[in-house]
Every structure is written in structure tokens, then in C-alpha cells.
Design brief:
The two termini are 32 Å apart. The chain is mostly helical. The chain has one domain. It has helices at residues 18-21, 55-60, 63-66.
Length: 69
């Protein structure tokens, strides 16, 4: 289980077994880039993302590329 977002351990009690294996083992810094800063994106006809709750941040930082979508 990995995520770019901080966990909400209080919710683990509501999911069977997650509290046993949902403990943070380590934090790792990774580089990211705003969607609007990706020069290779020319036109978007279809966009599929699945990033466990971080989708809104992608959309917020991709407004220029998403205007014509």
C-alpha cells in the first residue's frame, strides 16, 4: 500500500484488517511536476488517472491543459 497523501489512521478501525498492515514503514520524498508544466502534453482527448484521492490536485494544477479537453 503506497500513497502520496498522509494516512488517516483513525479510519483504519472501520476497515477489517487494515490496522494490522496499514502502518507507515517509511516516508520517501519523490519529485512531482504540475500537469501544466509537462510540455509533451499538446491536446487531451481522454484523461484517465487513478491516484487514490489526489485527482483534484492534478486538476487544480492542470487547468491550462484541461481547457480544451
Amino acid at each position: 500500500m503506497t500513497s502520496l497523501l498522509e494516512q488517516n489512521a483513525d479510519l483504519y478501525d472501520y476497515m477489517h484488517g487494515v490496522s494490522d498492515w496499514g502502518k507507515v514503514q517509511k516516508h520517501v520524498s519523490i519529485p512531482t511536476v504540475r500537469m501544466d508544466d509537462v510540455e509533451e502534453i499538446k491536446n487531451i482527448d481522454y484523461l484517465k488517472i487513478d491516484i487514490q484521492g489526489g485527482e483534484l490536485e492534478v486538476f487544480r494544477h492542470g487547468l491550462n491543459h484541461l481547457q480544451g479537453c
